């Protein structure tokens, strides 16, 4: 792993003021960043009125890194208050940043929420939580969060993942590895395009994990109309059910991804945008503080209308009974 030099996109002062005012106005009217039809309508209206420099900064990923960092609203470390001890107690803390993230997400595409995750909110709080130190979810800390496609178990998963940093005193890095940088032989590519094993719902989805339908087998890597696409989550893939040939190809893919992995240590106000079809992300281990000064990220998920990266067979998957909710009507 190397310390990354992620492409950085800046916003000029006028655009930052524009974004902040838009977010503050919506928050003042709604009084909360929790999901409501009125909030989503206000976000849609306001996002449509944002100026050209913001739109330009939100253009699609345009390098082989499959990601970029956007310097968005400055974060007032005192003003946002202490880091919540879990997503469940975060409520409306730093809500203006929730709405700014939702505005940017709406410029990039259509924000996505899950009925079974974080109360159906469109912006999630990612903080280390006591008792979850070793989990393979955003709430963990002391273990490596393995590289994964976000919500890989589901056909409605996001095209883009956004991680906005509120606080990160220990410079804990998010990891990212792009399939564009991986070199695999034709044989491995062909093997990994076969649907041989399922990807099971991760621990953040209690209800989906109890779903009693048969898990569909899915490909790991394929060529789509819009290029090579990856769907990868080794921590939730029962590889022992795959053929030795598949396991070997999967191992080579994992090794290659590890070799090209970069570390992005976000500073407050920075938003990491990851293309979820090209890049797997994770996080290095760290020691949680549990004193109100812990690392704190805001996460948004985005569907990009018109993307042709998903195989037609995904349309028949049950998604383990989980409903993906899009913020704005198509
Ligand atoms: O904490 C991080 O840097 C990434 C966590 C993660 O995988 C996520 O929020 O989806
Ligand atoms: Fe993730």
TrEMBL record:
Pfam families: TauD (PF02668)
InterPro entries on file: Clavaminate_syn-like, TauD-like_sf, TauD/TfdA-like
Keywords per UniProt: Dioxygenase, Iron, Metal-binding, Oxidoreductase
GO molecular function: dioxygenase activity
Domain TauD/TfdA-like: 142-300
SUPFAM superfamilies noted in UniProt: Clavaminate synthase-like (SSF51197)
Similarity comment: Belongs to the clavaminate synthase family.
Protein name according to UniProt: TauD/TfdA family dioxygenase
Natural source organism: Streptomyces yunnanensis
